[in-house]
Structures are given as C-alpha cells and as structure tokens.
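Researcher: First entry.
Model:
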Amino acid sequence: MEMDSKYLMIYNDIVGKIEKGKLGVNSKLPSENELMDIYGVSRDTVRKALNLLESNGYIQKIKGKGSFTLDINRIDFPVSGITSFKELAQRMGKEWKTYVQKIEVITADGYLAEQLKIEEGREVWEVVRVREIDKRKIILDKDYFIKEFIPSLTKEICQDSIYNYLENGLGLQISFAKKEITVQRATEEDKGLLDLKNYDMVVVVKSHTYLDDATLFQYTESRHRPDKFRFVDFARRQR
C-alpha cells in the first residue's frame, strides 16, 4: 500500500472514531510513535494523516503535549443569508428554545442613532433574547428595530420569530443585510446569560438589515459561544 493510501486510511479510521463518539471531545490521540506501531507505517505517513486531521478541524496539535480531538458538533451559521434563529434551528432538526430577557421601547442614544442612521431620541424597540440549542444557551441576540416600522411587539412574537411576524403579519419585505464578524472578550452579561463553559471570548456578528426599498430598519448584535458555530459562506471570484 502506497503512502498516499496509507495516510488516508489512518485519517478515515480516526475520523470515524471521532464522528461515532469513540473518541470524545478533548481526547488525546496516541503519540506519533504509538500510531506508527498501531498502523505499521512510517513517521511521515502518520504526520501526513495528523496534518489532514488538523486542517479539517478534527484535532488540534499542541506543541509538547500531543494531538487532541476537537468538538465537531458545530452549527453551520450562514454568513451571507438572512436567516432567523427559528429557521436555522428547524433546518438543523435540533431542539431549541428562545428566552426573552427584555422587550421595551427606548429612545436611541448616540450609538444606536449612528447604527440605525436616525436622529438621537427616536423610538426604538430593544429586544434581548437568549437562544438555547440542545439545552445549552449559546447565543445572546440584542436586536434594535426602528419603532415606526413595528407599531407593536409582544413576548410571544419574540419567542417565535420576529421575521415571520414582520413578513407575514406586517407585510414588510426584508431584503439584505451588511454583516461584520469580530471576536470580543465576553462581558459580564454574556457570562451571566450564556453557558460559556471556560470560554472568555465570544464571536460577535453585527448586522444592519434593510427592507426591499433599501431602508435600514434593524441593527443586531448576535453574540455566540465560540466553539459551537462554524460561519460558512459561498464565494465566487469576480473577474
């Protein structure tokens, strides 16, 4: 058996063990020497398999300590599309729940006025929701809607889907969004509302969402536990 097929055999064998749960999250793989003995291959073949495992997100190699398995049960979060949390959760077929922490009309301060391109003092809906998937609270959504577009808003609507209400209840046409993704240190609010485990960072997606007439009506800060999401996109080279 040539080296190419040997390293793929090792790769596929370890991937199978990870995906079937035979190797749990943060499990340490055997050393390079042990893998050489287990599979009867050279060090170069073992390293090639480990490199492929690392590049595909199955393991993390830590210098001086060895190779450890990563959590592969991540949720694909579409960067390009405009998808409600309810739509995302239903598409995945996972158990989900939304907890409404706050729903109230506030007056826009300088920061919100800048984000929503309105004058300070304009009325804005502030909606803060915690999203739970598979009994783990992993998203904190902070939404701000210009009130003139949404005369009324209830806890029941916020627990279900605001986008469904806007499109099917109010007849608004949501068209496009501009998004910015950053990694930030977790705030005390994040730590209090989310199941962050030992993570002290969160992935923050800031979105400015527009109607079909190019009117900006929503600003969102969506704060995610970093190990639970894989942000995906489709890109085509423009010539």
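Researcher: Second entry.
Model:
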Amino acid sequence: MTWAAAHIHSASDARRLAKKRLPWMIFDYIDGSAGEETGAKRNRAALDAATLRPRILQNVSERSLSTTLFGKPSQRPFGIAPMGMCNLSGVGADLMLARLAAKYQVPHGVSTVASTPMEKIIEVAEGHAWFQLYFSGDGVGTFKLVERAKAAGYETLVLTADVPEVGRRPRELRHGFKMPFRIGPKQFIDFALHPHWSLSALFAGKPQMANFDMDGYEFDRTESRARADWDTLKRLRDAWDGNLVVKGVLDVDDAVSLRNAGVDAVQVSSHGARQLESAPSPFSLLPAMRAALGPDYPIFFDSGLRSGEDALKALHAGADYVFFGRALQFAIAAGGEAGLAKLWDVFSDELSIAMAQTGLTKLP
C-alpha cells in the first residue's frame, strides 16, 4: 500500500490529499458545483441532519452487505456513479474502477464522456458495467451510442435527463476548463506546479473522450441537450430491451410518469449539485418518492454521499441502491488503485459498523 493510501481514513482524507496532487483546474472540475455551490451545501446539510436509531443487545455478530440488483447478486449496496473523464484523476482510472466493479459485483457507471472505450470497460468489469447516456443535439449520435452499447453487451442503460443545458460551474470557467484541453499560460503554470500529475499524464497521453470515434459524430460537451422530451424517452424504450434507468429525477410526478412509461428504475439525483444550484436535496425527496412509487419499484440514489453511514441513511430513507461519485476519483488522485481500494474498504467498514450500532444484520 502506498503512503497516501495508508493515510486515507475517510472521504475527506482522500479529497485533502487529492487537492495537493491535482492541478487546480482538474481538482475544481471534479470538486466544483453549480453557481455559488449552495446546492452542494444543501445536499450535505440534509444528510448531516439525518440520524440513525441506535439499538443494543441485538446479536449483530454476523452481518451481510450483500444485496440484489435487477435480480443479480451485488456484494455491496453501493456502486460507482457515472463520471466523465475519470482518467483526469489518475492514469488508468476508468479501468481501476472497472476492476473494482468486477471484484465486488457492483455496477460501474460508464459515462458517455468516459476516457476509455465502453467496450474495454465492460470487458475489464466482467460485465458489471452500465452505460450512461446523454441525449445531445438532434439525437442521431445518441442512438448510435445506444446501438454500440447493445453490441458491447451492456444490459443496463442509464439516461441522464437533468442536463438540458450544462450548468454554469464558476470554478471551471475561471480556469478555462475545456475538453479537449486548450493549454495557455495559466494552464501551463498550473500543470508545472503539479509535476507528479503532469508527468504521468504526459507519458500516458492526453485524456480524450473515447466513445466518439464513430463516423459523423463528434461530441460537444457544451452542446444543447434541450430537445429531449417524452417522445424521446419512448423511442429509447422501444430501442432498448434491457434495463432502462432514468437519472436526475427530482420530482415525484416525473418519477411516477417514468414508471408508467416503462422505465425500470429511477435515480434520484441532483448530478452532485453540478446542474441547478437551487435544486432540492435529493436525499430529502427519497421518502416521498418511495411513497409514490410503492414498495417494490427500484429507486437508486446519488449526490452528496461521503460515507458508509450516508449510504445507510439513504437506504433507510427509501433507496434500494446508492452510488458514490467524486470521492472515488479523489481516492485515485490521492493514492492510485491502492487509494481507491482503501476508500472502498473505508465505506464498507463504515456501513458495517453503522449496521452493528443500529441492530442490523442485513440491509434495510
């Protein structure tokens, strides 16, 4: 285990170490949120305010963190959220996450803008990968990606629906963050002051968006995605015979309409507060979502999670499964694959200990 990995005892440790190693532009791309970032604070405040009920004398000596997901076993009730350009956090990050997914039989959310081809990721993940889809432009390229994911063997498609326009993230804008990189004097100085990251990136080659080598389709991260509507969803449902999840759901009426439209699960999420600063805390909506959708309909959750206790709170509040995001990238930036494994163990230990403290031998 590396020195840095050995010093990761929490998600905040991973973030602190990553901040030292990453160029400012990269750190703020991963860490930043929309506007003045009050949405991110609201997400954390809601989770922090929630409490768990301690129980005693329950014989919790044997506990299981396993669950099922779309009828298949998963060794943890948490997976890997789709995150764009993960290889910015560390060379080979996409495949580190894929190997973790294979080891624990958890879903690795593969972003439309991943920096490793979707085919390679699902191969390394041994099938434990879900493809996350953005609708973009007129949708022609989007449906090409759907066919490509199907051909690669993906069984679950996740439509991210909360980005009709890309949110304004001032930290990104101040650094001039763009993909592909445009290197000016400011960025050159930033990279020069972070030689560990810069030299690794130089030898590995500049990270690229790897899923856009199709004829006639180039992805523009800032392109409007505003044309997507309920007819788009119907076309997608007709084109995809696997599991279909819609991510970015923050309205109960929308969730019910999605269920009625044949969507297999909803993911309650504010995109990590990166889109609409004034969005409500997704965690605060889980009880209402569960009440409206009934006890058996799958509800997934992400946004603001930083610990195994957070995961348990979300499961108690109505989620069936949760996803960690940027904290995993920080662990990679801090300590590479060893850092990722260490933080995953931290999350698992935190969850197991919280279950013991609250009298649980199996997940709620």
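Model: Note on the second entry: The chain has 15 helices and ten strands.
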